[in-house]
## 1
Amino acid sequence: MLKIEDLHVEVDGKPILKGINLEVEAGQVHAIMGPNGSGKSTLAYVLAGRDGYEVTKGRVTYKGRDLLEMPPEQRAAEGVFLGFQYPVAIPGVSNIYFLKAALNAIRKHRGEAPLDAIDFMKLAKKKAALVQLPDELTKRSVNDGFSGGEKKRNEIFQMAMLEPSLAVLDETDSGLDIDALKVVAEGVNGLRAPDRAMLVITHYQRLLDYIVPDVVHVLIGGQIVRTGDKDLAKRLEKEGYSEVREASRL
Amino acid sequence: MTDANRQTLLASLPSSFDTGPDWLRVLRGRAADALREQGLPTKRTEAWRFTPVRSLVETEFSVDDRGVPSLVSALPDGVSVRHLAEVLEGQPELLQARLDLGGVPSHFAALNTALFRDGLWIDVPPDTLASEPLEISHRIPTSREPGVVYPRVLVTLGEGAELTLIETYSGTESGQLSNAVVEVDLGRNAKMSHVRVHENAGLQVGRVDVRQAADSRYRSTVITLGGALLRFDVRCLLQGKGAQCQLDGAYLLEGDDHVDHHTLVEHQASHCQSTQTYRGIVSGKGTAVFDGVVIVHRDAQKTEAHQENRNLLLSDTATVHTKPHLEIDADDVICSHGATVGALDDSQLFYLRARGVPEDLARAMLTYAFLESIVDRVSHDATRARMREALLARIPYGEEIRGVT
C-alpha cells in the first residue's frame, strides 16, 4: 500500500527526515513513536502534501504510484487521509457541508455519482454516532469553538465519512483525557479493515493500548532506529526513548 | 440632453437660489458659498488622499432629474414615505432643521444640499414598530453622456420606533455619477437597522449622517460589490446617553475597482457604545480604502468603542490603505482599534485540500467565509439570505459554495 524509500526532507533548509524506510501493507496498523522533534509530524505532512516540506532525496510510492507528485486534494481523492494533530478552525465554513464538498469531490474522482443531500445526511448521522459527535457539532463551522476532544472526534468522524485506504493519524491522542481517548480509539478500531492501512503517530504508548498496532517503529532524529511488534512500545514506555537511542547506537 | 448642458460639478452651482422655503434657500446658499470658497477636494485634501477624485471634479456632467429613489417593497404599517419636493411645497415647516446635516456640509454633501431637487422622507412615528423591512432602490439612470444625480433621503424615527431600511444602489456603466445624501434622525429608544448594497456602479459618492438620541440603536451593514469609484462616508453622532451604533461593512473588489469607506463616530454623551467591523477582499488591480475615526468627547465617560478593519489581498497588484484611529478626550473609556492586511490562511487552505476539496474551490470557500461573517450579522432572515446571494453571485464557484456554508 505505502512504500517509503530513503526519504530525506528539509524544512527551511534544515534536514528533518534523514533516510526513512517504511513499508505498510493493506490491513496493517503501523505505529510510529518518537520524542518531540524527531520528525513525526513532518512525516505526516509530507505524506499529505503540505507546502514547505522539501523532499531532497528518496521516494514514496502509494498503491504503486508516486505519491509525492500529487497535490493534496488528489492524494485525498486517491484515499490518503491525514488526521491532524492540531485541527484547524475555519469560521464561516460549515463542517457538514464542507465535508459534503470533499466527499463528492472524491466520489467524482472515483467516477461515482455525488451523494444527494438526504443520503449524505443519513450517512453523516451514522458516522457521527460512531465517535459520539453531537449532531449540533457536525453543523457548526469547522472546528470553530470545539474543545480539544471534540476536534479529535471530528477528525475521526471525517475519516469515517471519507473511508480512506491509508489513514495517517498524527498524535490523535494528544490533549485527550482517558474517556475521550477510548471513544476516539474505538472509532479508529471500527475502521480497521483488510483493505485499509493505518499509520498511527504518537509520543506515548497509552494510545497503543487501545489501538493495537501490528508493527511499531521508533523514530529518533529523523531516522527509524528500531522496528518491532507491539511489545516494543511497552518497552519504550518502561525504559524511555534515551535507552532505545543508546541501544540503537550499538 | 446636449453638450451645451454639461458642466463641471462646481460650475453647475447657480448664483442664487430663488425657490423653496426661506430656510432651505439659506441652507443651499450657505452650502454653495462653502463650496465656492473651499472648492471640491483634491489629492491634497487629507480625507481624499487616496481617492482618485480628480476625474469627478474635472468631468463635465449634465444634471439628471431622475435621481429620486423608488420604493420597491410594500409600505410597512404606520410608516410614511413622501416625496421631499411635495412636502417642501406644502408643509415645509415639517422639514425645517432636518436637512442641514448637522451644520454646514462640505464637498460633495454640500453639492447635494445645494442641488437636490427631490428625494424621499421616510417617517416612523413614535412607538411604531415596522415589522417588515422597507426597501428603496437607487438606480443610476443610463445615459449616453456623463450625468449626475443627487439622491436625497431623510429618515426620521420617533421615540421608541423601529425600522429596517434596505437601500440598493445599482448602476449600469461607468460615467454616471450618483452623489447621495441620507440623513437619519433617531429619537429616544428608537431602533434602526440600515442595510445598503452597492452593486457594480460606475461612480458613487455617498454620505450617511446619523444623529442619535438617548438609548437609540443604529446598526448599519454596507455591502459593496465593486465599482469604478465608490466613496462612502458615514457619520454617527451619539448625542444622547446610552446610544449605540454598530457599523459593519463587507467589500469585494476586482479589476480596477476603487472603494473608499470613511467612518466617523462621535461619542458626545456618556455610556454610549460603538463598534465598527469592516472586512474586504481585494483582487486584480483593485484599491480599497478604510479610514475610520472615533472621537470621544470629554464628557463622554463610560464610552465603549471598538474598530476593526481586516483585508484579504488576493493579488500582487491589489492595494489597501487602512487607517483606523481614535481621538479620546475622556478618561473612563474602553476603546480598541486594529487593522490587518493579509492573504488567505495557508493552514486553513491545506486542511480543506487535505480532505479532498480542490484548491480553487477551497480558496473560494475561505474567501466567501471571510465576508459572510459580516453578512451573518444582519438579523432579518430574508435580507441576510439576499445579501448572501449577492456575495455568492460575485465569488467564483458561488454555485458550489451555496451548499457548502
Note: The longest helix of chain A spans residues 230-249.
## 2
Amino acid sequence: MYPKNGQSLKLFSGNSQQYPLEGDLTHSEAGKNYAQVVHRIVGRIPISGKILVTSASAEEGKTVTAANLALAFHAQRIPVLLIEFSLVKPKFAEIFGESPIQEGVEDVVQGRIDLRSVTCRLGNNNLSLAMVRRPQGSEEGLKPSVALNQLLADAQRDYRWTILDGPSIEASNHICTLVESIGLAVMVARAGRTNKESFRKAYDRINKHRPLVLLNDER
Amino acid sequence: MDSLVLRSVSIITLILAPHLQHAEQAPALHSDKQEVQTAPEPAPQGNGQTSGQTTSARRLKDLKGRLAIQEQRLESLKEASADPRSAIPEKASSDSPSAIQLREQLLIARQQLINLQSRYTDLYPDVIVAREQVASLTRLLDAENVNASQHPDVVKGAPGVQPSNRAQELGEVTASIKKLQDEIEEAERQAPLVKMAPRTTGERLRRVLPNSEPQSSGQTDPVAGEMPSTNLPTKVAPVLVGNSIPASIPPAKSQQRSHLHHSLRDLGIKKKFILALSVLFFLASALIWLFCKGRQATIQDGIALQALLPDEADYVGCIPRMDKV
C-alpha cells in the first residue's frame, strides 16, 4: 500500500501547531469525535475509499476537518493519503509548512507528473500528503480529465483511504462531477458562521450523492 | 422627561429669539414718546413671557426716571420758595411748559444713556441712539433758553412765581412722588426674582443659545460667560428676570421656572450630550439588531443543522471547538 519508490517520500516538519489538529489525539474530545466519524465513514457501504471534504462557502473549516480526518485515520493505523485539492487557495503550506518537493498537485492534475512524485510525509507522524505548490488562477484542473482519473486511481492503489481537501461548493463549477468521480463527500458546516440559506443551496447541489454532513466548531 | 422639556423650551426659544431682539430694540428707539406720558401702561408687545419681561423692566425704569424728575422738581421748588431771587430769567425760563417738557425728556434720556452705558459699550446701537437723543434735547433746550432770554416779557409773565401757586405745585409734586414710589414698590414686589444681572432677556437667551448672536457688529460684552447667582444682592441695579410671571403664581411654581432658566443655561452642553447619547443608542441598537439577525441566519448548533437537512441526509455529528495552540 505504501509507495515503493522511496524517492517520492520526503519528510518535513510542518507548522501545524498554529491550527487545531487533534484528530489523532484519542484523549481529547475532538479526537474522540473524529474517531467516531471515521467509524461512520469506514462502516458505510459501499466503501468508496475516497472522501472529498467540501463546504458551502469559504472559511468554514474544510482544510482543518480534512487534516483532522486524515490524522484520525492515521491514528487508527488505516493507510491514508491527504491530498490538497483546493488549487486556488491552498492552505496546507500554512498548516504543515512548505513542501520539500518542487512540484505539486496542480502538476499532477495537468498530467505532467504522477501522484507519487508529489507525495511526501510529515516528519512527526509519517502522515502522507500531497500539496499544491503553486496556487492556480482557477479550479479548472478539477474538471473531469484523464489526469484526474489517473490521480484518483493511483491514490486508491497505494492507500486504503484518500482524503481530498476540495474547494467550496460555491467557488467551484466542477464540484458535482468531482463528487461523482470521488464517490463520497463530507460537507462541513461551521457553527456560528455557515449561513443557513447558502448551506441549503449547496447541499441541494450535491444532494443526489448523499454527502455526509459534519458540523465543526460547535460551542 | 427633563430632557424633553429642555428640548422643547430650546426650540421655543430659538423661534422667539428674533422677535425678542426686535421687541427689545423697538422701545429703546421710541422711549421718549412713552416716558413723557403720565404713567403710561406698557402696551403688550412681542410674544409671550419674554416680551412681557422686557416691557415690565422698561416700566420699572420709566417709573424710576419719572421719580427722579419729580424729585428734582421738588428740589428746585423748595429752593425757589426759600430764595425769592430764584425768579431769575434762567429759572423762569424753566417754567415755560415747553422748557419743562424738554428738561424732563433730557433727564430721562440721560438716565437711559447711563443705564445703557453701564451695560454696553459706546458702539452698541441703543447707546448711540440714546446719546443722539441727549444731544438733540440739549440743543433744543439751549435754543429754548436763548429764545426765553431774547423775550423776557414772556418769561416774566410765566406762571409759578407766585407763592400760592408754588405751594400748590409743591403739594402736587410731593403727591406725585409718593404715587411714583408706591408704583415702584408695587412693581418690585410683583417681580419674583430681582437680580443684579446687567442684561436684558434677549442677551440671556443669546447666551443660552450661543448661535443666536446679536446682529450688530463690533459689540463687545464685558461680562460674557458669567451668570449672576441667585445669592447675590437683589438691590443692585435691579433688572427683572421672569417678571412677566403674575403675582398670583405661587412662589413654588415661579421657583420651578427659575430652575428651568438655570437649567437652560447648560442647555448648550446638554444638547450635545443628548445628541451623542442618541447616536450611541442608535448605533448600539443597530449592532444588536444585526447581531441577532446574523445569529438567526447562521447555523448555531447541530440541532439547527439537522433541521435544515432532509430526513434521508447522513449527519455524522459535530466536532467541538478546539482551541488553537
Note: The beta strands of chain B are 193-195, 239-241, 314-320.
